[in-house]
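We emphasize that the prediction below concerns an isolated chain of 210 residues; any contacts that depend on oligomerization or on bound cofactors are therefore not represented. The input was used exactly as deposited, without trimming of termini.
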Amino acid sequence: MAVISESSRTDLIRRAFHVEWLTAAWTSVEAAVAIGSGVAAHSLSLIAFGADSLVELASAGVLLWRLKVEIRDDEKFPETVEHRASRIAGALLFVLAAYVIASAVYGLWRHEGQEFSAPGLVITVLAIPIMWLLAKAKIRIADQISSRALRADAVESLTCGYLSVVVVVGLLVQLLMPGWWWVDSTASLVIVWFLVKEGREPWQGDDCCD
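Result of the prediction step, given as a token string:
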């Protein structure tokens, strides 16, 4: 990787800061719409998707803090703080996965269905290209400034995009096959795999950038 000047690095840090603000703004909207529409439609998959967005919002907040410190004070963000915040985010994802499993199993046992949610479909469809573009921008900057934290955040954005695909497929099946009451619970169990994978890396401290 080519060595970049201090001025170029500062510009890249500021660009990363702006990308993270866009991420925080979008995940705020994403979480509000997904959870609100999920509650209204009794859709576990939408609620889980919205809750995951809240965890991503918290992670973006930590990264914004880190970038702000470097821009303002030209100081390295304390690794202990970042590590602690990362483990908390991982733990929250594990708790969310356990909740989704319990709720999905209960829903399947009770034969509880869900209503189709048009707002939920719109927000998850929009999330696919938006999160992909944000992740691409983060990876490009992370490679230039050798930031593992920014690259890890980009991976979270990609995971959100994959989650969106799962929820969109589930919602479309609900729309086309309204009698298939088990679709939402089944889609939620698929989401669990992504939640556990996303939570394992920050909890164990895996290097996602290698």
